Amino acid sequence: MRLVKTLKATLVWLGVLAWCAAPVAGYFYLTHQAQAATFTTSAVADGVVQAASGTSQRDAQLNLTWRSPEPIVAPAWDGLVQEIGLKSNQPLASGDSVALVDGIDRTACASTRPMAEDVQSGSKGVDVTTLQECLTLMGYDVSTDKGSYGRATRQAVTELAKQTGADSAEGPLIPTVPGAETDPATPPRRLSVGYWFAADWLVYLPEEGYVATAVDLRVGSPAPAAGSVLAAAQPVLMAATLTAAPATGAEIGVGDPPGDETAGQEGQGDSGGDGGVDGGTGGVGDGSENGTAVGAELVAAEDETLLVASVPVPLAEDRGKVSAEGLIALRALVNELAPSVPAKLERPSRVDELSVPASALVTALDGRRCVLVVESGRLRPVEVETVGDSDGWVMVRGELRAGQAARLSPGAEDRQCG
What we know:
single chain; alpha+beta; six-stranded antiparallel beta sheet; 26 strands
């Protein structure tokens, strides 16, 4: 009996010890595993310095200058609108028909000022000068008249009237004998074609190549009242100036170097964000573009191509503004009246540039940047200049060689640039 009681007591104590020991054993086991895991994730890893390939880009901005043209307004017309020559989104030039009103084609003219009064043979003044300016824009030579309604102007007006249907209009009455206007024996006569010109045959065009976005004319309707808006135009993009981008970031490379960034060791470390450097989010820099103040004007290098929304836009000869041809292409890429638009300057990678993993770039407290090169098991800092970044890689210039090993995500004690 005593033996049985002793066995029972022993079993009870063994159960108590097991119950107490299990949590302690579990604690030590988990601690060991955590230490093993920590050791694994903190294992050092080295990347490889590689020759840069593909192209590189740097952020920029285009500051845009706009002008809103004046609308086209109706002269003092009478009659019905029979045809409409003015079309939306099509350029209108001097000599083009705006509308057929009362049997006469009303012709556009981008003169210095609108014509205000009718003129006739022998007239002088600003309205004659305006008429002659319009005739010149339409291809007629009236240079011999020089501000006076003379023979050359009469010939040009006669030809124009035949083309527009104005030759059917009744001319104004003039006295047959000056001073005898009321004498029944000498009744007044009408001026014939070419000897007079009505101001409402012309429509003042604010500028050549006017592109209307809205036309307010209807066939069969009475002619609009004088001063009514016939058409409004798109804002005109006058200039686009290249400036430094407002966001942080230097050049952004396109086209990764071949191969893997690690040199055969596990644990690649942290690349420091989405394409950024040292914890950044997509850029290298501190609010300036390669040392250029934000908003300062830029001049593109000869081998750089301006891109807006990935579309090449031609630059002017000074390489700091968009060319006239480029403004046409740019107009289709930007929002109307936008003050600025993001842009990029793209160029081929240069022979003195190398690519390193983004996590290999170290930024010291004094702002210097370096790469820690691994040589015979030791780290040697090599100061570099960053010129671009993309997809976990940074393009740099410095005393590096392709094939060198560079420490990835170095510890705090090693993050020094000499």
